């Protein structure tokens, strides 16, 4: 949470850069200023302050889109004042929202006899919560209809998931059962599920492109495992697939891999449109396999904006821009455009991978087959783990933002650097990045040797004295 500053600090003056030329008053940093200022000056103040941020184009940490076409920027500006939730006021916007969900349902291979439904959200976190809430609700209904207790629901997922899964469990009071990673396998397979899944399991989560290594959970094996449980014990446990990062990569790069509605137990999927849907933040989508997978009780009919509007969301009002920009991208790129862009991004990730491997310092954790991420660890296992963190710091001096972290249990001994390759990351940038990485490694080696020599010298000095 952000802290509300104490009274004394309220009066800390704001420092101006170029806007200082036009200012003759001081402005408080932490309280709403008493008097306003000229629009141009306010604009300049905000713009100057943002110069302290990192450069989005050099941010290899995030999956989120940093560039769209000028036409999309124009649409963004023109539609920011339309509230998405005002369906009665803006029926055509709502019609487009429907189309976007429908296009995504088709992309996820919903079977012909299903009637997929869904909604656009602020991102995958909201979408995952909505998906899991629906499954919790259905589980509760099934149990109470059968006269069984409904007090201990659980959700099962691997330690490779994004924090929002844990958030769901805590916020919505569901026990989370986390399947640990293996020390040499960083995604989930069905053979790890025994002892985790039981009659109180509302859903099993699978990730399509894990945040940590970009690998895929083995959804097909989990699906088969749950089908067997259904036949043997009558437990009908749904899978929710988290396609936040891979949801737009899989259909275009490896369409033959089945993880979506082609698998019977996959009842809901979320995707972050603001990742490889190539739209600015924040938009995600949740899609249910069939209308019957979304309990009616969770859909609210809103009447106070005129007409009657069904609504299933955690948030309410927000700009319609991102939904419209996703529609723009679908029309503009078509499936062929997405296929070409995704293939290009994957090729660039592989190129970066090759460049980094040439330095003969790293080992790959994934072969960037499923996501355009490059995740590396040190080849020489005798090197201290902190080297990974020092490299991340050094890269920052060249402007690159590359996260360093340890994998979740039971692979916490593995420390990695992860680079997410997005559309803006060209081959030239890959080359420049590898060159900078080489310099960082050289510098690190130099510094470490200097340091060792220094301590050697001081030890010797100590002896002389
Ligand atoms: C990014 C991500 C999320 C969270 O998505 P937001 O759209 O940022 O809310 C969840 N799961 C995975 C696998 C992700 O990569």
CATH class of the largest domain: Alpha Beta
Average pLDDT figure: 92
Major β-sheet strand ordering? 1-7-6-5-4-2-3
Overall number of strands: 13
Question: How many separate domains?
Answer: 3
What count of helical segments does DSSP give?
A: 11
Q: How far apart lie the N and C ends?
A: 54 Å
β content, as a range? Answer: 5-15%
Q: What's the main sheet like?
A: 7 strands, mixed
- The global form is globular
The CATH homologous superfamily of the largest domain: Type I PLP-dependent aspartate aminotransferase-like (Major domain)
Bound molecules: pyridoxal-5'-phosphate
Structural class: alpha/beta
CATH fold group of the largest domain: Aspartate Aminotransferase, domain 2
List the uncertain runs: none
Output the helix-strand order: HHHHEHEHEEHEHEEEEHEEHEEH
Question: Nutshell version of this structure?
Answer:
By secondary structure, the chain is of the alpha/beta class.
What's the helix and strand layout?
Layout: H1 7-10, H2 39-50, H3 70-79, H4 91-107, E1 117-121, H5 124-145, E2 154-158, H6 163-171, E3 175-179, E4 201-207, H7 219-233, E5 239-242, H8 250-253, E6 266-272, E7 284-288, E8 300-302, E9 309-311, H9 321-357, E10 362-364, E11 373-378, H10 386-397, E12 404-406, E13 415-420, H11 427-464
Parallel strand pairs: 2-3, 2-4, 4-5, 5-6
Antiparallel strand pairs: 1-7, 6-7, 8-9, 10-11, 11-13, 12-13
The structure holds pyridoxal-5'-phosphate.
Pyridoxal-5'-phosphate is lined by residues 63, 123-125, 162, 164, 207, 209, 211, 242, 244-245, 272, 284.
Pfam families: Pyridoxal_deC
GO cellular component, one term: cytosol
Keywords: Decarboxylase, Lyase, Pyridoxal phosphate
């Amino acid at each position: 949470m952000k802290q509300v500053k104490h009274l004394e600090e309220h009066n800390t003056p704001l420092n101006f850069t170029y806007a200082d030329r036009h200012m003759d008053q001081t402005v408080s940093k932490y309280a709403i200023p008493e008097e306003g200022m000229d629009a141009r000056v306010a604009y300049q103040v905000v713009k100057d302050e943002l110069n302290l941020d990192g450069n989005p184009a050099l941010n290899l940490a995030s999956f989120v889109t940093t560039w769209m076409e000028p036409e999309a920027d124009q649409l963004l500006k023109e539609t920011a004042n339309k509230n998405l939730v005002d369906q009665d006021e803006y029926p055509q916007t709502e019609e487009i929202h429907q189309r976007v969900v429908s296009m995504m349902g088709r992309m996820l291979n919903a079977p012909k006899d299903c009637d997929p439904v869904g909604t656009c959200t602020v991102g995958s976190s909201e979408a995952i919560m909505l998906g899991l809430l629906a499954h919790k609700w259905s589980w509760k209904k099934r149990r109470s209809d059968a006269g069984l207790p409904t007090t201990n629901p659980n959700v099962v997922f691997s330690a490779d998931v994004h924090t929002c899964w844990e958030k769901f469990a805590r916020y919505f009071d569901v026990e989370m059962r986390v399947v640990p990673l293996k020390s040499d396998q960083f995604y989930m397979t069905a053979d790890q599920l025994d002892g985790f899944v039981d009659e109180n399991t509302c859903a099993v989560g699978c990730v399509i492109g894990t945040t940590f290594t970009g690998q895929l959970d083995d959804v097909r094996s989990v699906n088969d495992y749950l089908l067997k449980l259904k036949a043997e014990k009558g437990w009908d446990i749904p899978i929710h697939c988290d396609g936040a990062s891979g949801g737009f990569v899989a259909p275009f790069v490896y369409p033959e891999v089945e993880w979506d509605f082609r698998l019977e137990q996959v009842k809901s999927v979320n995707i972050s449109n603001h990742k490889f849907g190539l739209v600015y933040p924040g938009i995600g989508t949740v899609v249910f396999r069939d209308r019957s997978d979304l309990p009616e009780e969770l859909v609210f009919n809103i009447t106070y904006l005129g007409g009657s509007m069904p609504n299933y969301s955690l948030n309410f009002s927000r700009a319609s821009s991102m939904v419209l920009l996703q529609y723009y991208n679908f029309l503009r790129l078509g499936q062929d455009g997405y296929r070409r862009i995704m293939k290009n991004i994957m090729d660039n990730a592989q190129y970066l991978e090759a460049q980094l491997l040439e330095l003969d310092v790293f080992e790959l954790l994934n072969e960037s087959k499923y996501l355009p991420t490059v995740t590396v660890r040190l080849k020489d296992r005798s090197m201290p783990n902190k080297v990974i963190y020092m490299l991340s710091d050094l890269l920052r001096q060249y402007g690159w933002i590359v996260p360093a972290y340890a994998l979740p249990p039971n692979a916490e001994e593995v420390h990695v650097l992860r680079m997410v390759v997005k559309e803006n990351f060209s081959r030239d940038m890959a080359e420049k990045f590898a060159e900078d990485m080489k310099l960082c490694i050289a510098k690190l080696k130099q510094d470490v040797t200097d340091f060792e020599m220094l301590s050697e010298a001081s030890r010797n000095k100590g002896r002389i004295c």
